[in-house]
Amino acid sequence: SLKLGNNTTTFNKNYGKTTFDDSANELSNALDTIFKSCIYPKTNSIECIPTPIANCANLDKKKIPLLNFDIEPDCNKPETCLFCANLVLHNDKEDIRKLLSVLEMFQTSKLKVSEQALQIQERIQNLLDEMQIKFPETTAIIDSVRVEVEEGEIDAYWADISITLSILELL
């Protein structure tokens, strides 16, 4: 407020009369923008490269963390891409299978569930929910792929990770 030259009178006159509902709506709109901005139909015009978790719109590997999350994106840890503004998620079987494969691995893991693992699972579920809201026809695809993943048809990348974790007796 000092930098803007605001004092108590300026604050009370211009900012202090915001209601809880106004603040809640503004925050809700901001969060909606964050969650919905990464989900696109497969036919979008965004240039991106496939990753083990979905797709990346940043071809020069600059990670841009999303606000309000504790997990810092790391291009060497694909599951952290879920928390990067460069994430591009298509409403197709391929990307849905990637997400559900990660979710399945966390759910079958013998490791103690960490806070980061819970955040990743919650983010995946939120993305799948948003995808169904934005593209209702995706619900049938998600249900179909979920059954396939539960029967063992997980994404190839995550299948390799799963084998490694099984050998280490962590899965």
Furnish the topology, listing elements before pairings.
Layout: H1 8-14, H2 20-36, E1 39-40, E2 49-50, E3 55-56, E4 87-90, H3 93-108, H4 115-134, H5 138-150, H6 156-167
Parallel strand pairs: 1-4
Antiparallel strand pairs: 2-3, 3-4
Structural commentary:
It is a single chain. The chain has 171 residues and is mainly alpha-helical. It contains six helices and four strands; from the N terminus they run ααββββαααα. Strands 1-4-3-2 form a four-stranded mixed β-sheet. Strand 2 (49-50) and strand 3 form a beta hairpin. The relative contact order is 0.12.
Low-confidence stretches: none
Strand elements, count: 4
The H/E string reads: HHEEEEHHHH
Structural class: mainly alpha
Number of helices: 6
Strand coverage percent: 5-15%
Shape: elongated
The overall average pLDDT, rounded, is 80
Main sheet: strands, sense, barrel: 4 strands, mixed
> Cα distance, first to last residue?
52 Å
Radius of gyration: 20 Å
Query: How much helicity do the residues have?
Result: 40-55%
Strand order of the largest sheet: 1-4-3-2
